[in-house]
Specification:
Elements lengths: L4 H10 L3 E3 L6 E2 L2 E11 L9 E4 L3 E7 L2 E3 L4 E7 L1 H4 L3 E2 L4 E2 L4 E2 L2 E6 L4 E4 L3 E9 L8 H4 L18
Antiparallel strand pairs: 1-6, 2-3, 3-5, 3-13, 4-12, 5-11, 6-10, 7-9, 7-13, 8-11
């Protein structure tokens, strides 16, 4: 079951679901829009202000301004906002595991024509999913490779 805007707001207010830099204007009927804090184009130095120009046929990654902390009974799905998909940005996101904590690194590809992406713009929607019950082990106990990350974090080797 996906959480509604009302339930998301309630859980944030209670501190059960944590979204640092929470902005009620980013709530959607069934999720929360994540904003861009930094952009890395083809592994160059991160850009943290202004507009970033993304050339055609170029890979880039963004980090969210929001630092999220999920409880052990809520996971989340990520979806690119159609604003960017309609401009040729292709991306494939996944799930945020129950118990994850950190900013999110989102990978994308500009397939159409050069575009400008402003720091602070909304880039992806996070939709919260209520698990049938609390997970036996949280993300930090299963792998936790990206637990506590801040900023664009590229691939890490698995622990152990």
């Amino acid at each position: 079951m996906f959480l509604s805007d009302h339930k998301i707001k309630e859980l944030v207010e209670k501190g059960v679901l944590q979204i640092d830099k929470f902005d009620e204007d980013n709530l959607t009927p069934n999720g929360y829009d994540l904003t861009i804090d930094e952009i890395v184009v083809e592994e160059r130095r991160p850009q943290t202000e202004g507009d970033t120009v993304i050339p055609t046929n170029t890979w880039f990654a963004v980090s969210t301004r929001e630092y999220v902390k999920l409880p052990p009974y809520i996971a989340a799905e990520l979806w690119i906002r159609t604003t960017w998909a309609r401009q040729g940005v292709i991306s494939s996101f996944g799930m945020i595991d129950a118990g994850f904590e950190g900013t999110l690194t989102l990978s994308a590809y500009n397939s159409y024509k050069e575009l400008e992406i402003p720091i602070g713009d909304r880039f992806a929607q996070m939709c919260f999913v209520l698990l049938s019950d609390e997970s036996d082990k949280e993300y930090s106990e299963r792998s936790g490779n990206y637990q506590g990350q801040r900023g664009v974090t590229l691939r890490k080797k698995k622990k152990g």
